[in-house]
Amino acid sequence: MKPHFDRIAFIGIGLIGSSLARVVRREGLAGHLVVSTRSANTLARAEELGLGDSYVADAAEAVRDADLVVVSVPVGASEAVAVAIRGHLKPGAIVTDVGSTKASVIAQMAPHMPAGVHFIPGHPLAGTEKSGPDAGFAELFTNRWCILTPLDGTDAKALAKLSDFWRACGSNIDTMDPQHHDMVLAIVSHLPHIIAYNIVGTADDLEAVTKSEVIKYSASGFRDFTRLAASDPTMWRDVCLHNKDAILEMLARFSEDLASLQRAVRWGDGDKLFDLFTRTRAVRRSIIDAGQEVDAPDFGRQAAKKS
Amino acid sequence: MKPHFDRIAFIGIGLIGSSLARVVRREGLAGHLVVSTRSANTLARAEELGLGDSYVADAAEAVRDADLVVVSVPVGASEAVAVAIRGHLKPGAIVTDVGSTKASVIAQMAPHMPAGVHFIPGHPLAGTEKSGPDAGFAELFTNRWCILTPLDGTDAKALAKLSDFWRACGSNIDTMDPQHHDMVLAIVSHLPHIIAYNIVGTADDLEAVTKSEVIKYSASGFRDFTRLAASDPTMWRDVCLHNKDAILEMLARFSEDLASLQRAVRWGDGDKLFDLFTRTRAVRRSIIDAGQEVDAPDFGRQAAKKS
Q1: Are strands B94-97 and A94-97 parallel, antiparallel or unpaired?
Q2: Quick one: which of A45, A60, A92, B45 is 20 to 30 A from B83 by CA?
Q3: ipTM
Q4: Are residues B125 and B200 both part of a single domain?
């Protein structure tokens, strides 16, 4: 296959960046792939893993002559990257990112993008609870959605080229207004992570139930939350700080609904509980039917072996 | 292997009852296994599946001459079962249950148990989001905890016999005070289910984000909650109604913590967010180390196939 881009530069090589690097190499999508990250240890590890063709610490050096620049750093670091690379971008280059919030990334990066460079923000909805370059794998994006949030006046050819690139990585493409993206992600991703972090924190703080009891008996429900609550703390701190309004809106709705549910428990309103518990079943069925979830019990976890 | 009991009667044959029936037959733990359930359809299905040696609709008839009676019905139905069987139990029989709440089951059943019958409440911490006799499987209890909450004065030999039976089914045994059981389960199981039901309800009610968007993009976190929220509505209504005090206590703590987290989001307290998000990671690691969770990313879900 002919490479999609002669030269691709990755700024950041964590779970998402390293997964993308792996699929880019597997599919031969880059003539040359430059990997860049500020951490010397991570850069050395990326080289050991053979994730790129060359490795540089300096983002400005990495983007020189690159036709595609993929920024995959915690969203709070977006502006610093934009400032570092703005004077070194090739005219006609496409600059994209993979951040979980879009309005904030645009506010941080767009003002620094030179004329003649195509800045097209993006967000692959893919990830696991693991982080770092060792955690990546080439299949991460298979059959997952990548949402692009092009700005007004985005060049149609550049958008098509970036979309084709993501499709070649296995993704399905949607485009969306950045504000709407941030609202959608607040409910499907940010609120779930915050709730998971919160309940794990609540359990960790109890006096009447010991930590060892929480751990021993976690298979009865609690452990499902611990996966999201094991996600990268830096990434999720930044998401909370950079999608504040939409997150606060979803938190308010969640808490209002929970207060109503709590009242039903207190006053023994079994019909109300039964109605909600029935309605929510259908949602999972729809997700399975849409190919976004497995149908096997317990997520298809393998039963733990008797020790 | 010599059967553990000459005659075992199951009252209720849903996910738990049918899983237990399967392992009892596989391991040869019963000389004769009688299956009983009020629903004619379910009873016929249990017979088609070959879950027992005989099948009767009437619980009173089922328990006649049984050495072990296992009640596996929604906890709200416990007293009705106790009333139905109390005049028909064999002297020296062991009566146990599998309910998710223990103080309420004891209050419903213990007053009806005749002298000479050993009533030993129990709770296998095992299950999936599926329900009904077809959903059961013999490995459900392997390496999972079964908590027994014996009453004061329980016969030590009967307790040992019931414990051996559960061990033969694959379980590890703990004993616990019923009130403490209910507090522990409120945090490791009941609160997680209620929170999962609630967030799925909140998402289902949004106007600004469509249902199809929630479903399409659910793999970014939301789908993890839908598994618990697909659990049996009758069972979970009864749990909420029958462990009210402990659940309200845990809901209050959760909401208090969430309000504090929400405040950190509103005021941009990144350090506070980072500290919580770091602390919760260790909890998952402990659960994996305890053999109660898989270490594979995404619970080891198989990546969805490209359609």
Answers
A1: unpaired
A2: B45
A3: 0.94
A4: no
